Structure formats: C-alpha cells, structure tokens
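--- STAGE predict ---
source: upstream dedup step, 1 unique chain passed
mode: sequence only
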Amino acid sequence: MASSSSLYWASAEAASPSIPPVPEKRIVVGCGGAGIDFLAEVAAFPKPNEKIRSTSWKVQGGGDAANALTCASRLGLNPRLISKIADDAPGRAILEELKADGVDTSYLVVSKEGNSPFNYVIVDSQTKTRTCIFSSGNPPMVPDELSQASLSSALDEARFVYFDGRFTDTALIVAQEATHRKIPILIDAERPREGFDDLLYLADYVVCSAKFPQAWTKAPSIPSALVSMLLRLPNVKFVIVTLGVDGCLMLDRRVEEVPELDEIEVDSVVELLKQKIDSKNTIPTCIPSKSVMRLRADGIGKVNGRLLVGTAEKIPASELIDTTGAGDAFIGATLYAICADMPPEKMLPFAAQVAAVKCRALGARSGFPTRTDPRLAPFLC
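--- STAGE serialize ---
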C-alpha cells in the first residue's frame, strides 16, 4: 500500500509536470536534535532590564536534525529521525509536527521523565538577526537507548545518513554501522564538540558553519582551513562552508592523478573566483574553477581538487524576516541534491535558494518550501 507521503508527491508532480521525478533512492536517516522553538519578533533587541512587546510570535518544532529532515521531506525525500524527547507536552507537539511533515519518528526515544529540548529565539526586525537561548533535553540520549534492532531497521535501504553533531556517543555507533554498510555520511559541523572528531573521521561529506573550519584546524584563512580539513579527513569527498549573505565556498576533492598539474595557492584562487561574481545578479549562482588544481595552503599541505564559490540570493530588506533555520534548510537541500545526483554547480545554487526562501518567514519550519514551490523550479530543472 502506498504511503500518504508517496501519494502526496505523486499528486504534486502530476500537477507540475516540468519538475523532475524524485530520486529513486530517497531514504535518509538523521541523528541529532529535535525540540521546540519559542520565537518572538521584536522591533529592536531589548536593553538590560528593559520590558518590550513582541511584534509577532510563534511556537513550532525546532532542532537542527529535525529541521533539516523536515526540509528534506518537503523536497521529496523519505527521512527517518533518531533522536530523544520526553513524554511531555512539548514532546508530544514535536512528534505530531514531524509526523505531519512526513518524517518517520519510529526511532525517536521518548523518556517517561525529564523534559524535551526547547529554544527561545529573539528575532530583531531592525538588524535582521536572531538570538537563541537553548535548553537541552534531560536526561540526554545514551547509546543503550538505541537497540541494535532499531538501528538496523533505521538504516535498511538508507541512501544517506546525516548527523548534526549532537548525541555524539550514540551518533558514533550509528556512523560506525553506516560505514560498515557502506552508507555515505554527511556531517553538519557547527562547532567543535567533545567526541566530535571521531565522528568527523567517518564522514564522506561535511557542511560547516563559517566559524568551524578555522576553529577546528587553526588555519589562518577559511580556504586554507578547507585544505587542512581534507588532509586530516581522508575519506571526505567535499567540504562546504556556509557564509550567510556571502554565500558559500566548496572544496571538492579529486583523487585522479593529473600529470604536470600546476600548484596554486588556495587563497589566491578563491579571490580570483570572487572577482567573477556578477554584482548585479540577485539570484544564487555558482562560480567554479575550470579544472582540477593542486591547491596549496602554505605551512599546511596540498590537495587535488576544484574550488567553487556559491552566492546567496540578495533578498530585499522588505522580504527578509528571519534567518532561523537557514542553515538547516541548506543541509536539507544538500541531502536532496546528493540523492538526486546533482553536480556541485547545480547543488550550491539550489541549496542557497531553499535557504533564501526560508528566510522570508518567521521560524524555521514556517519557511521551508515544498518541492513544487515555483521559486525552486528554475533550480530543479
């Protein structure tokens, strides 16, 4: 019997014949955070000891992994989430919202005591920034709470496994089993965490926040840090660093031997690519290096690869509402793009566009587009 999710996408595609079919292998497994976001939009961030009123507010599901998988589901993938919540009112709301969005919650651990994770988010309408105050769930997830039978079932027929860096002990067990089954792994590297390195060494793909590469490698620049990451993580095929309004930067490893390959300093290549950006273009684009190069980071080493600079959409100030969840949208779109075998030149603008669409709504889930959203059509075809 066809699932409600499958019937939904079939009917959506029938109404939009120009949209390519969903990927054949589209089961993705995510391991990480799920919670509740309490969002308040204010005219300006409050000063100490000041009382202000919100201009709008919203309560909705949050958590990096839960958000990314929700986005991936709306784009057409079949996600399964490994996480932990409590049997409280927020926990029940988390489950209900994820199920409504087509995320398989069969592998969530529900604690009979404690509390589910939650996040206070203050969205400043004046500066277009958001401030988060996070409270983790209690008690935290431990490996013994994920049985071998559940782990095996979660990974059956999975095309991809994704980690947001939380529950590192449990995540490592999931990653080791995925590696044993030769299932590719994507990791969202937001910041260094205890035990995170062991997880990174199993990664096939890494998407980083702007601060992570240099914080983890101590390299003098982001481009040289990406070279350092590929040298330290020999299994990683590409690493992307997201840069907000400045787009993103991707280093795509190439293992083929190319004779007489010239060495080029990585920072200079990035600067040359940035010079090719058309400042008048408002939609996301990608500027790739033309060929494989031997990229050198002085004092660090050399790798063979291609560099790609991705731009972000220039969102009019009147349309920019909230960046909460923009990174999760980028991850969800990247998962879809890999499952759809998109080349990097197509993947980066697509992921940037999904993130840009999200920024036009308050909260993460409110802004995630569906696959049939006409704003995505030029990037899917």
